[in-house]
Design a protein that fits this description.
alpha/beta; Rossmann fold; seven-stranded mixed sheet; 12 helices; 9 strands; binds S-adenosylmethionine
Length: 284
């Protein structure tokens, strides 16, 4: 078998099973099984596929057909400036969340050489670790409810050489008083509970705790908006990712006296999903 014929056959199989982006998924899986760059498969379709690579590829293809996210099969996911180990313990980091981290990075640029940031609901560590990699002076607190996710984020911190700059906290709420931060950034679970049964098999194989935001999806986000002012320095920011229409709904309940600067920002698809709120100069 050649790479080209293997990809054509696999792409058709994934398409028949209703898998999104069948060709791209097949390319990533075959490249990993053969140990070559994905683009090389396209440039050299006559590359032979060894029997061992074909066996691995077919096993992984079957997992993809059953709806397992590509990142769980490969065992990694690129996120902005870093590569993360991901598995069933954590949500697969999404492109929108790369944008969230980019917005947070823009804010941190104006906050001095040694800012303190909290990544609330850190999961794999995607947001916080990418910021720590970008800002060498950043002190990061990664808070997470799931012990399994904390273990995964800690493995990622170690693999990236960032472990001395990250403090992991196991908790399920942001205490209203305690250490103050320049930035609290979060991609909390925000899917309304009732929507979850109708999600795709890919999403349903991710941890429920990472998805379920309660009846209207805003349980964790509302708690953060309420308690963050007590944990932010003057002029500190709460920057969050939410679902469509949720950012505006949350912002409406955030008092202008506490948050003199507050707005909803759009993602690359034009969906208004990011909350960007900055406390006043005399906060705290
Ligand atoms: C949508 S995932 C985001 C994971 C990661 N930050 C990312 O963007 O890929 C939400 C994360 O929040 C965690 N979580 C859920 N409820 C929480 C709570 N009440 N307190 C702290 N973390 C929570 C979940 O375990 C999950 O890791």
């Amino acid at each position: 078998m050649t790479a080209g014929t293997t990809l054509t056959e696999a792409g058709e199989r994934l398409r028949e099973r209703g898998v999104d982006e069948p060709e791209l998924n097949a390319q990533w899986l075959l490249a990993a099984a053969m140990g070559v760059e994905r683009l090389r498969l396209l440039a050299e379709p006559d590359l032979p596929v060894t029997p061992a690579a074909l066996k691995t590829f077919r096993r992984h293809l079957a997992l993809k057909e059953r709806g397992l996210p590509l990142a769980y099969i490969l065992g990694w996911q690129d996120f902005r400036n870093i590569r993360l180990k991901v598995d069933r313990r954590v949500l697969v980091p999404r492109p929108e969340t790369e944008e969230l981290a980019g917005i947070a990075a823009g804010f941190l640029k104006g906050r001095g050489a040694e800012p303190a940031a909290m990544d609330y609901g850190a999961g794999s560590g995607a947001i916080g670790l990418s910021l720590a990699a970008e800002f060498p002076g950043l002190r990061l607190t990664a808070l997470e409810k799931s012990p399994e996710a904390i273990a995964c984020a800690a493995e990622n911190a170690l693999a990236l050489g960032l472990e001395t700059r990250v403090r992991f906290l196991a908790a399920s709420a942001l205490e209203p008083r305690g250490e103050r931060f320049d930035l609290i950034v979060s991609n909390p679970p925000y899917i309304p509970s009732g929507v979850i049964p109708g999600l795709s098999p890919e999403v349903l194989s991710e941890p429920r705790l990472a998805l379920d935001g309660g009846a209207d999806g805003l349980i964790v986000a509302r708690m953060l908006a309420r308690n963050a002012p007590g944990r932010l320095k003057p002029g500190g920011a709460l920057i969050m990712e939410l679902g469509e229409a949720q950012a505006r709904a949350l912002l409406a309940g955030m008092p202008a006296a506490v948050w003199p600067e507050k707005k909803a920002l759009k993602d690359f698809r034009g969906v208004e999903r990011f909350v960007y709120a900055v406390t006043g100069r005399n906060n705290g």
